[in-house]
Amino acid sequence: MPSLAEFQRLPLTTVSGQPQLPPATHAASLTDPAISQMTDLRLAPCVTVDHRDGIPATLHVMQRAGVRMAFVAGVGGELIGLVTVDDLQGERPLLRAINDHVAVDELTLEQVMTPRAEWRVIDAWQIEHSRIGNLAATMLEHGLRYLLVAERGQHGSLIRGIFSARRLEAALGIELASGPRSRSFAELEAALMH
């Protein structure tokens, strides 16, 4: 095995002008490989939150991490669900709070998450030879905002990646929404008042 001493150091320079970050999304076409739009969890970090966490704290963590979806971990650290910003700011928490006779801020993620049993996944081997058009059509047909990519392992499924409808919409310049979307608390309140 080579030693670190065998490698030449690379030259460093200073930043010139006003530094900028690259755009978050790149234009894509329906015929591009689907995998080009997948967030690969082997390379990109994902956010995991505890099932006992509250909605405001979770939204803060997600905002700080710059993500719109987080996995929910149970007592032993196993994945038991997922939550999205749309779920947490939409009607789901309000309806659950009304049903349970509690304040929205008293709800835990376990009460509002999408449980693992309801996840819709696609096998990783299918993605390897698919196009973005196949993926977009699938997400549109099933009304999915997120699609998890799973790989079969010795001890069950390994979540390898995530497709986001928001990312696809930005890359393709089209909208993948079908049917009614979750409303914010303000929109729901306004609808209930009329």
UniProtKB/TrEMBL annotation:
InterPro entries on file: CBS_dom, CBS_dom_sf
Coiled-coil portions: none
Residues of the CBS domain: 45-88
Name this protein carries in UniProt: CBS domain-containing protein
Species whose genome carries this gene: Ideonella lacteola
Species lineage: Bacteria, Pseudomonadati, Pseudomonadota, Betaproteobacteria, Burkholderiales
